[in-house]
Amino acid sequence: MTPNCPDPIIRATLTAVHRRDHAHGAEPCHPHQVEVVHLGYLAMTVCHDCSYEFGFNDTHSCERIATEHRMATA
Questions:
Q1: R_g of the chain, CA atoms, integer Å
Q2: Is 45 left (phi over 0), alpha (psi -120 to 50) or beta?
Q3: How is the chain split among helix, strand and coil, in percent rounded to 5?
Q4: In sequence order, what are the beta bridge partners of 55?
Q5: Please, which residues have CB within 8 angstroms of residue 42's CB and are 6 or more apart in sequence?
Q6: Which residues fall within 8 angstroms of residue 21, CB to CB, at 6 or more apart?
């Protein structure tokens, strides 16, 4: 990970992916824990349970995808 990275978009993305990769054990949550990382006018959806990623897209689309993924994994 790059904690001193000056670019806030890269830093936010790396932080979300790092949390996704290290936050859970072998058993996924139901529904899956999904995070939407806001990157200015864009966003990225990161699932902490199955490594699913969606983005860089508009925030509304990422929020919708996150909700759909949570519902599909409940």
A1: 12
A2: beta
A3: 40, 25, 35
A4: 44
A5: 55, 56, 57, 58, 59
A6: 51
Residue 24 has pLDDT above 50, yes or no: yes
d(CA 22, CA 49): 10
For residues 45 and 55, is the Cβ–Cβ distance under 8 A?
A: yes
pLDDT band at 66 (very low <50, low <70, confident <90, very high): very high
Handedness of CA 52, 70, 21, 58 (dihedral sign): positive
Look up the pTM and report it: 0.68
Q: Give the per-residue SS3 of 22-33.
A: HCCCCCCCCCCC
Q: What percent of the chain is predicted at pLDDT more than 90?
A: 22
Summarize pLDDT for 25-50 with one digit per residue, the tens: 567 778 988 889 887 788 889 888 88
